[in-house]
Each structure stands twice: as C-alpha cells, then as structure tokens.
Amino acid sequence: MRTEVDSFRKLNLYKQALRFTHMVLQYTEQNRDEIGLRECLEIRKQAMEIPKNIATAASEINVKNKYKKLNRSKEAFQTIMGDLKRLGMDKSEKKGKSQIEYTY
C-alpha cells in the first residue's frame, strides 16, 4: 500500500513561515552590530526551525507526531517573537499593521 503525501510547499502555513524566516534573516543581517553575533546566530537558527518543522509535519503520517512537530514550530515562533520584540523589531516596522504579526 502506498500513501501519497501532499507537497508541503503548497501549504499556506509553510509559505507564511518562509516569509517570516526571510524577514528575520534580513532584520538580523541589517542589525547584526546592534544585536550581537551570538544572539543573531541563535535567532537565525530558531527561525530556520519553523519551516523545517512544518515541512516534516506535512510529511508525517502519524497524526500525533504531526501535531507534535507543528507545536514545536509554534513554540519556536513564540520564542523568536519574544526575542524580536525585546530587540525592538516591531518598533522598527512602519506604523500600521506589522509584518511580523502571523498567527498559528
């Protein structure tokens, strides 16, 4: 028996995670001197975990494991958001709707 797996690249959640990750990477690159190299690398590593966990969850057949991986992605997102707010990323955005307001 063969099970077909949907392409994770078509998932809107994965696309949003990629956009968020690219935005975090750009922000950390532009503000590396203010943030510090070590913290910059930690934030980037956490940001890369989000789309990675979503992609592995999409290919998971076991529902329990699928939600476990999605929850890991959510936890990484919440951690990064706390770090970015502490560093002032939301203040550097233009007035109005912030680009980093994603909902999981």
Provide a brief overview of the structure.
The protein is mainly α and 104 residues long. It is 72% helix and 0% strand. The protein has helices spanning 12-30, 32-35, 37-59, 63-87, 89-92.
Characterization of this structure:
Helix 1 (12-30) packs antiparallel against helix 3 and helix 3 (37-59) packs antiparallel against helix 4 (63-87). The protein is elongated, with a radius of gyration of 15 Å. The chain has helices at residues 12-30, 32-35, 37-59, 63-87, 89-92. The chain has 104 residues and is mostly helical. The protein is built from five helices and no strands. Mean pLDDT is 81; it is low at 94-104.
Topology:
Blueprint: H1 12-30, H2 32-35, H3 37-59, H4 63-87, H5 89-92
Helix pairs in contact: 1-3, 3-4
Note the gap between the termini: 33 Å
Enumerate the spans where pLDDT stays under 50 for 5 or more consecutive residues.
Answer: 94-104
Number of strands: 0
Fraction of residues in helix: over 70%
The helix-strand sequence is HHHHH
Radius of gyration: 15 Å
Class based on secondary structure composition and strand pairing? mainly alpha
Coarse morphology: elongated
Q: What is the beta-strand fraction?
A: under 5%
Separate helix tally = 5
Largest sheet: none
Mean pLDDT: 81
